[in-house]
Amino acid sequence: MDENKSDPTALNFDNPNTEINRVAVKPPIFWRNKPKLWFLQLEAQFANSGISQDATKYNIVVAALDENVLDFVVDILSNPPENEKYDTLKKALLNRLTDTEESRLKKLLTDLELGDKRPSDLLRQMKSLAGNSISDEIIKSLWLQRLPQQTQAILTISNDTLDKIAEMADKIIAVYSSSEICQIKKVGSLPNSASSFDRNKLDVLQADIAALTKKFEEFSRNTRSRSKSRGNDRRRRSRSNSARYEFCCCDIFYDSSTKKKRPYIPESFRKIVFNSVHNLAHPGIKATTKLLKSKFVWPSINKDARTWTRSCLKCQKSKVTRHVQSPFQQYHNVSKRFTEINLDIIGPLPSSEGFRYCLTIIDRYSRWPEAILLPDIRAETVADNLLKGWIARFGTPLVITTDQGTQFEAQLFQELSKLIGFKRNRTTSYHPQANGCIERWHRTLKASIMCHENESWTRSLPIILLGLRTTWRADFQSTSAELLYGENIRLPCDFFEDTKFQPQSEFVQKLKATMKQVKPIPFSYNCKQKPFVFKDLQNCSHVFVRTDIIRQSLQPPYHGPYQVIKRSDKIFTLLIKNKNVNISIDRLKPCFSDNSPETDCAINHKSNPVDKPTSPVKKKIRFAPLPIAPSTRFTRRGREVKLPFRYQ
């Protein structure tokens, strides 16, 4: 009985009515050097899996290619044909990745050599390169030329086919020369001048080797004689602070005052030694100094380690010792209402009635807040709502303080300021304290919206603004409504009101007299942080800038260094990408430099005018003389003789 008939779950791939939803095929990694062979193996997998759909074959091939191979067929992938996708892609890959006929012919004639391959493998490779364009007689002639001479003499007289001749060549190579390497090319004899030149070089090298061997034997002999008399010398001789061994025409000094011998490092190699130790893990000053002193010795090693560790640019970028917290500056008192306002945008918030943003405004004199609903934050929308929602009601302000948002930096907002006649104060980037009057109110506004627990927050916003405007402020002993209107506004919970009649003229006079007595009250600062500013910020030439955006993992907290163009108590002007940018001092960190060529190249000094002299302070490092010089004298006990300065 037929198995397919007995088993209902068996699939008959030859039946055209058989439908398969999905077949798992794992194609091999694309062989870029052998694309034709790769397609043969892949088509065998298609046959075993019963895959016949053109789209399925096309998708499997595309999924198996890497990005380097996909670049060759990006035109087909972008606009695949409607029919025969697989055949088109296969033909394109074979044509674009297979060597041209000229390159294969060149490789056949010049590049192929026997090497350690078998003759049959070489013949098979030559046939693959030749294809059908070259006859077997030519291939046989080229193949025999690449075999050893003794093998050529035997195979030339044979009239068998190439395959049988190749089998004979394999046996001859295996029997005749099993341990020798077949000669690939016949090297011609060198000219007399070249051979004489090589002989002269060989004589010089042999003389150098003989001299080095003699020195090594003398050193070994001195070491053995010293080890025999070490016990007697130890009693008569005190341990010296340093010793010197001569080996291979090189003097090595080391310090033996500790249990571990520490080599003395010359001045020209000290920075190299420091980099090899410090750049492993970039430890701090104390750890680097201790590590250097445990392995090496030179004068002022503590000072050098401290200076070089402090000036390491990678450490300065990645390590945070302490952030700058400059003291708050007192903002000047505002004399009139609605002359200076603060402007900002909050959002995106959950969509409610088509609105997702709010244009928030606050008057610096009366603290009167305003929140205007916005569907978007385009410059046109912001300018239109500012004009309708604030300027039309309270008049044109003299100064508007905003951040560096794209809406306020747009050309439209600048033209609006010229047309209406107000000045815009721009805060520094990533420094919300500069616009703290409105930024602090955002927290109160958002907390009030969340307390209502209403998804339609736009309906609760008017009531929230009413409550915030009538909230008692302890800093100026009043409410925003009283400072604006002269008296508090009526709330929904008020039950009593004054029924005493008062003429309008009398009320106006009292209101004017009361408003004249009102004096501006400065803002209160509730933050009790202790100010801290690096002293070196006043004279450094370059600084690092703190990265206040949401950093990625392992991203350094600082970037730079950048050159200082101008400085003040709160703002530094830096040269960033050939542009002058104002940065708050709270985001800066001084850059320390050891004035070495490597550090100067990394900092990339540029000559720009500076208001104050910002050239780095050059510290002169004085290095002590070598502890052991050729003219140093020692006593019979091994102690160094130190003469007074007048005898030197």
Automatic annotation (TrEMBL):
Which ranges carry the Integrase catalytic domain? 323-511
| Lineage: superkingdom | Eukaryota
Query: GO terms for molecular function, please?
Result: nucleic acid binding
Biological process terms in GO annotation: DNA integration
Q: Which PROSITE patterns match?
A: INTEGRASE (PS50994)
Q: What is this protein's record name? A: Transposon Tf2-6 polyprotein
